[in-house]
Amino acid sequence: MRLLFSAVPAHGHVLPLVPFVRAAAHLGHDVAVMTSVVMQRPLAVELPGVTFLAAGPDPMAIGSLVAERFPGADPVNDPQPETVAEFFAGARVDLAHDAALDAARAWGPDLVVVDAVDFVGPLVAAELDLPYAMVAFGPDVPPEFTQPMLAVVAPRYSARGLTMQPPVAVLDPAPRSFQTPDWTATPLTLPFRAEAYRRDDQGVIPSADRDAGATRPTVLVTLGTVFNDAALLSAILADVAALDVDVVATLGVQLTSPPLEAPNVRFEGFRPLAELLPGVDVVVTTGGAGTVLAAAAAGVPMVVIPQGADQFINAARAVEAGVAVQESDPAAVGAAVRSLLGNTVVAAAARSVQQEISERPSAEQVLEQLLERVR
Question: Residue 207 has what pLDDT?
Fold first, then answer.
């Protein structure tokens, strides 16, 4: 079978698809990834040898069109339902559709697999009369955001004489404890095991258990790939580094040099979390879904300082599950870290969520379920 993976051009949207891309290739299927050309070089590292189909602009061009249609809008840093909908389901579809349709038609897929807010892939699937499946990247997005997105994209289907269809499956990494109390699975839901992102050449990475030789706690500060600006990272590190801890801080994909120097802080560039989590006692994060789920899967408590996008949703779910503390002030992060170190109640909740996640099927097992459903 030929599987086309389509995603919004950002690490947080593309990387959740990678385990399924690898699984499909491992099972002998033909695979291709379709997104903006800005992701071609990063994906050459993460998915060497996989066919890449360039289609559509980068996020800055999409944001510029949103700003033209909604003056003053900032859907990333100030996510309002109408501008978020315009970003994902309006402007991006308008800018990427033609190239995506041409690329997909030329490659000839049998199934399209999309990230949770990619509206280009489902439209292309409808035009080519193909089934599509969706990969969620975290807890369910609330209806106040999903309904406007569906309303914005609907006229794009009508203009082409098409009707929106549901996916054949929703592949869901979020444990039940990270969903709202009224959440229920649907017949479309195929739960899978969330894991810290790793490269294909990595062996088994252990859970984040204490290193027997460690003399003091280790804190991982990782602000993701969008909100990892120097001022925010510096403010957080100035507070956390004052504790009697060792700190590992990531520079992400934006920063090229450390924002400060401290004897107990070690900086890393963009690295898979599977390489960084072992031995960590607390994770400090802005709350990207990938980081939150990776820390939960490793049984590590979190301090979440959300900045935008879906991070407030992820922070709320992690706090409600008892595995995280949420802060808004970088100067309060150190105290929050201190409150988690040795906290047996939070540690027990983290182990419980870790166990819940570990009992789910792997990405490869769920992909086989999906393909059987498609057949």
Answer: 42
